[in-house]
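Re-run with default settings, no changes from the original entry. Doing this only to confirm the output is reproducible before filing.
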Amino acid sequence: MAALPKCVLLQLLLLALSFHALDAQTQAPNISLGSTLLAGKNSYWLSPSGDFAFGFYNLTGDLFLAGVWFHKIPQKTLVWSANRDQPVRIGSTIELTLGGILVIRDPQGTDDFWIYNGTSADSASMQDDGNFVLRNSGSTVVWQSFSSPTDTILPGQTLKKDQKLISNFNGTTNYSTGRFELLMQYDGNLLLNDEYADPAYWYSATQTPNSSLVFNKSSMLLYVFNNTGIALLLTDDAILPRPLGDYYHRATIDDGGNFAQYTFWKGNGSGVGAGQWSMVWGAIEDPCTTNAICGEYGYCVLDENKKASCHCLQGYSQIDPNNPFKGCYPDFVPQSCQEYASGANFEIVRMNDADFPNNGFADLARINNSDADSCEKAVSEDCFCMAAVLEFGMCRKKRMPLLNGRQGIPSSSGRLAFIKVPLSNRTISSDVHGKKEHHYRALGAGLITTSILAFLFAALTIYYYHVSQKLRSMKISPNVMVNGSAVTQGLVH
């Protein structure tokens, strides 16, 4: 092969250097104004070590979130997102404008999403601790992702008063806002609760104002800290793997409502714990005890991996088969006390080692000195009662809707649940088409009724309008002629 001319070699060398500089720019400490990322082009800005990336995180197909993730591990675990409830499509951009604004733009340029809308940012950087920051010309941080967490905190990050973490809707398939939250309450109490607004199902009992949840960067310990020091140590130093620097660390509230700390070994190989996140501490030991984890009319059992598995009560079906945590709906028409008086249209189903605790709310009724037969009879004879739990001689009638269902776990051991289930002659089709048809018939009937009422109202309005007009004309002329004589009109006073 003939040797290339020196001028061509020089041009190739300069071109290679330019490509190297372009690649290195993604890992530069400072990202300059005017920089842009494009969705669908594997476009992101790396931290100096390459441990974290900020950019477009691909969900499924052509949907993307603007966020921060662990970049060196196969899972590319997302730890923060700016637009978790508003994914964008291929062709969207993230732009740090010349005016210092950080914005997500859609391909049409008609629906911008402002991440930072200030005017003082002069540069940006993806830091090695997982914090994406904007700084002014004096290098002071004016905005940071650590100040607006989603479902995760990282070492060096603090959850301050009234800040919260909110779970994803469905694991790693739907990152939108979920049901559960970890709240650093204003009074210093760290709480886990859910959208059903029940009392917190876990709390730290650290009621000192101005407390914070701290994820210590050097020790990797989680603790509640107040003005005087550590109020509560959540994780124990003894449970953390060594050396600490050989592992990635995060603490996340998951879609099952548990807040837990995880580690990921940075090394290669296939040893124990390699290639996956391992939980080293969790606030909830039994995931089935999380408030309403299986939604309305669902109940929770532990699967072979000791994880929550949701099922529907007999006579109920899943609202969303792809997400059992959303709960269940009845396959039957609501109960009529008159129709159920004879007891011939339903049966009582028993569930061993099952419970439906109300978590602080009163039961419908409590009957002492009960046994299985008397408790079942109490449910059968009460048309307003759909379920009860026999608990050590006390029959607890439950309020609707049924929540917090669980079976086969330590807290439900020895309890017996009774569920009233209508028989098939009262059952309606669970087919979606049937539900829509039933809905449309009801809607059509409602529209017809509304139209008739509207017509009658209009007719009455016209009638009374003409009557009032006639009366008004009579009031204007107080004297009328009767047989040629003027008399006073009785309607005028």
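The longest strand covers residues 174-184. DSSP finds three helices and 38 strands in the chain.
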